[in-house]
Amino acid sequence: MLFYNFLYYILFSSLVDCYTYTSYQYKIECESSSPILYPKTLEKLQDIIKNAIRSGDKIKVVGSRHSITDAICTDGIPIHMKHFDEVSVNKREGTVTLGAGLEIMDAMDRLMEFGVTVNNLPSFGGITVAGCVAIGVHGSSLKTPSNPSEYLTAVTFINGNGELETVDETDPDFNSFRVNLGLLGVFVSLTFKSTPLYKMKMENYRLGEELLTKTPD
């Protein structure tokens, strides 16, 4: 059977005009005009974007595809940024810069080596750093801002002309980048305010059902 599948691929792959990929739970299936591309360098990423501009193709960065809707789908060119996984720490300025394609868990593991972290990250660590900011993923806190995008201080991205730009908090439009829904270009790296590494304690306990019916005073 494997031989026949391979033979079919050799004979007919040139006739395929669509490709498929799925959500993280395989519940959503998307059809695109290209397989998911994994650029390894900034130059290659810019080439992909500029070629798409010339040909009129759409581009979507698909990340971890942690979605229960078809928002992850494109009929154009899907890109995954997993090779953009830098981690750098500026202790003098109290910031960390993370590659857009890093998953949260990997980023935190690597920041641990420097004794720093970012406040209020989501409990699910499989989301990419850029995706976390793009869709407003949140942690939980009553003491500090619970959305990681609120700690964002700068973004390096490729704009709709295929040009590399960096924008920071001094830009009057910077808040647009905090929850951008992927509409402001392809993010390459993101810089956050950091905090010294800390430990958390979690306690689980059960409350009575009267909590659901009792009217607050």
TrEMBL record:
Annotated PANTHER family: D-ARABINONO-1,4-LACTONE OXIDASE, L-GULONOLACTONE OXIDASE
Protein name: FAD-binding domain-containing protein
Residues in FAD-binding PCMH-type domain copies: 28-197
Transmembrane segment boundaries: none
Signal peptide stretch: 1-18
One Pfam family named in its UniProt record: FAD_binding_4
Highest taxon of source: Eukaryota
InterPro entries, sorted: FAD-bd_PCMH, FAD-bd_PCMH-like_sf, FAD-bd_PCMH_sub1, FAD-bd_PCMH_sub2, FAD_lactone_oxidase-like, Oxid_FAD_bind_N
Keyword terms, alphabetized: Signal
Single GO MF descriptor: FAD binding
